[in-house]
Amino acid sequence: MNKVAKLSGSYRTDRLLLDELTLTDSVFFFELVNAPEWIKFIGDRHIRTLEDASLYIKRIMDNPKANYWVVRLQNQQIPIGIITFIKRNYLEYYDIGFAFFSRYAKTGYAYEATMAVLKDVANSPIHTRILGITVKENASSIKLLERVGLRFWKEIKVENDALLLYSATVADLVSTAQRSQYEKQNTEPKNKIRNSTLSA
Length: 200
Fold this sequence. Notes:
Strand order of the largest sheet: 1-2-3-4-5
Helix content: 40-55%
Radius of gyration: 17 Å
Oligomer: single chain
Distance between the termini: 56 Å
Strand content: 25-35%
Order of helices and strands: EEHHHEEEHEHEEH
Shape: globular
């Protein structure tokens, strides 16, 4: 898979906006990559100043095989995390990635944003398989990868780091998305009834 895959510049979901990472996001990016969770599970990028952040973003923007989106809350325009879709030298296919501030954990935002990108990927004819990588200590990442339809494939070594490699065919991802939509449609009315009862 050597073809370049540049996807849509922006996405909108029920609650979120996803826009391409730009130099205007340097303050947000600086905070995100220095968050304890990023350093623990992704690694220290040695970004110590806003200038470092801007230079890092510039390298991302200049890489045709790297897609980064800033995820924002629609109603407040607050950046809460990123979604990535990257072709790495050590992987045969593109991998989907995500990183969010811990204060937005357990809200469903990461799943919602990831699915928005994966639905677009599924419509691209150059993709047959999507990968995901994480470390075994990152239980939240593993849970999300599995929820969007990826399954554990094997463990790989990258620069002495042990990474878990997840994989799925695009067809499998489409099936997962369709099943998720079906479940959402069939649970929403029940939730509305339950909420009405509780508020009565």
